[in-house]
Amino acid sequence: MQFAVPTRNHRSSPFMFSSVSRQLSRRRRPLYLVLGLLAILFVALKLWGSGHGLMRPGDAPEVVLVTVLDRKKYSEEYLAKVIENRKEYATAHGYGLFIRDSTEYDINDAPDGWARVPATRHAMSVYSYSEWFWFLDQNSIIMNPSTKIETTITAPKALGLWMRRDVPIVPPDSVIKTYRHTPPERINFILTQDHDGLNPGSFLIRQGPWAKFFLDVWMDPMLKTYGFQKAEQMALEHIVQWHPTILVKLALIPQKTINSYPTLPGQEGSYTEGDFVVHFQGCEAPERSCEKEFERFWESRGRALKR
User: Are residues 185 and 46 part of one domain?
Assistant: First the structure.
């Protein structure tokens, strides 16, 4: 028995396969085009919404200064000077300004210092197109208002020079250290440390999904109610040391860049004339007075500005 063998030109259907394939491809082209446009739109919206994209409105400030006021502890005269100092600096550089009272945030019975975390998150929602947010404690004065954040601190070239690599998170001998090779372009969180550890009295954080994740972790109810001796400061040290996802985005920079302390003999990071900021860390101790220390530097700053 013999079977007929189809020739090379044999067609099992009245249409050539290549012809059918071309027709199907033509039908799918509109679908591919729509899917491609949707993908481009999705990426653009993500960039726009995060404050990093080219679609950011021209009037959106690149930097936002955040301060939380405690009206239960300090006089209105004192807080008025704090506000004046922040407004003067923000206006000079076209920065956004976000000042709120600590009572606006529900931190339950936790120390008032915790309010800095939801306040920073709140500022990001208000200034949704801004990139960097600088939290500065109320017990601080901007002494050198000519300093620009985006050129002297956050610019990758500048930050790369400031970054302290392979140093203990909690000095002097913490086994967890900053990474050696993280590029400055990948940094989302910038702060300083003193001889006791990390100090969140002055820090910079970049808008985006990572920042929201980090602030949520920092504000976790378990950490807030744990009873750390130094409240939000030790909670921060805990999560930085135990979460590589957070540590890899962290840059420690020299204290005098954004967080100098009042001049104290033998203490590294003490304020000298020309420093950007003086922060009266620990001034709420019984033997000290935040308002008196503030006034002393406020007067010296006024004399310097008149020169």
Answer: no
Instruction: List 100's β-bridge partners, or say none.
Output: 68
Quick one: 34 and 173 in the same domain?
Answer: no
Q: Is this model's pTM higher than 0.85 or not?
A: no
CA distance 14 to 99: 76
Amino acid at 106: D
The two structure tokens encoding residue 54: 């080219």
Query: Based on the number of CB atoms within 10 Å of its own CB, is 307 exposed (0-12), middle (13-18) or buried (19 or more)?
Result: exposed
Q: Is the pLDDT of residue 21 over 80?
A: no
Q: Are residues 190 and 270 in the same domain?
A: yes
| Residue 245 CB-density burial (10 A; 0-12 exposed, 13-18 middle, 19+ buried) | exposed
Same domain for 86 and 217: yes
pLDDT tens track for 44-69: 444 444 444 446 687 899 999 999 99
Residue 111 CA to its chain's centroid (Å): 22
As a whole number of angstroms, the distance between CA 71 and CA 112 comes to 11
- The boundaries of the domain holding residue 235 are 63-306
What pLDDT, on the 0 to 100 scale, is given for residue 230? 83
Q: What is the DSSP string of 121-142?
A: HHHHHHTTT--EEEEE-SSEEE
Q: State how far Cα 282 lies from the chain centre.
A: 23
